[in-house]
# Entry
Amino acid sequence: MDIQELKTKVLNSESPLLENYMTNFIKSTAKYNRFNKFIETHNLTDEYSVRDLSRWHMILTASCAQGREDFAKEHNLDFNKTKMTVPEFFELVKGSYGSEIIERLEAKMRAVEKLKSNK
# Structure
């Protein structure tokens, strides 16, 4: 198993221990570092599981598990089966909890992608 497979396995697990670890990670990591980590591991074209994007929503905004579960139910999203692109995720969460943080991430991610495409 390579590092990317391990990372995916960890992000897709349902462990309460992992949830606690990620909560502590949020508290100890500056926002811009969290943005950079998201941008390093995601792009604007690939599809990602709702579970992965939901975990990142928690990392970025400190959203609670119950709120994320309720949001997924309201939008008929299955954590394990539903996949979407990052732009679809950005659009979906507009106006919901933490959307101002996600909007800043979107702006930064689009600026980084633009810089990459200009090279």
The chain is about 70% helix and 5% strand.
